[in-house]
Task: structure prediction
Amino acid sequence: MRIDSSRTSGTRASLAAFAIRSFLFQPFSIPASSMVPTLEVGDYLFASKFAYGYSRHSVPFGLLPIAGRTFDTAPAPGDIAVFRRPSDPSTDYIKRIVGLPGDKIQMIDGVLHINDHAVKLEETGSYSSDEIRSAKVQRETLQNGVSYSVLDVIDGSTGDNTQPVVVPAGRYFMLGDNRDSSADSRFDMGTIPYENSARAFACFGTPEVSTTRHGLTGK
Result:
């Protein structure tokens, strides 16, 4: 029996693609503006599935039926994370981790406070787009030195002043970089369990995407 080499090569390529997507990297397209100016609507990126170790949420079709995580590495403040909410396990979200287990998180007059200390915030310029007419760009620098740009569209918005939240054990506090247009841990989303959370701490743009603009190295 003659084997069709082109069909065999195609099958191998398909299996390789499935393995990479399932266990190593998964592509995403940004559908909303909650991470502007770091990630723009329509940007493409790859999320690393092994960055924080593997959980049952890391692999599709229930192929990894484990409890908790294996080969785990703890997320760090400032990481960009892809995760799923416990109440909505079919949808992927992307935000920035700002609070670790045990941290006290609060927004006061638009300034992020961690453990009662204000995070350094500097105005660096302005931003506009088809969706956002005018906004202030600010540089936020965490205590570990990670620095990135955030957007301030409206002074005194709902998320600018919040009640303090102590992050429970095994959970993380997520914020969008577009502080006035992000459904995140300040609101109904709440804190995110480690097992459900970040499948990526590093995101890589397409060649058309500037990693300098995105600040994806975290520095």
Q: What stands out?
A: Confidence is low (pLDDT under 50) at residues 1-23, 200-219. DSSP finds two helices and 14 strands in the chain.
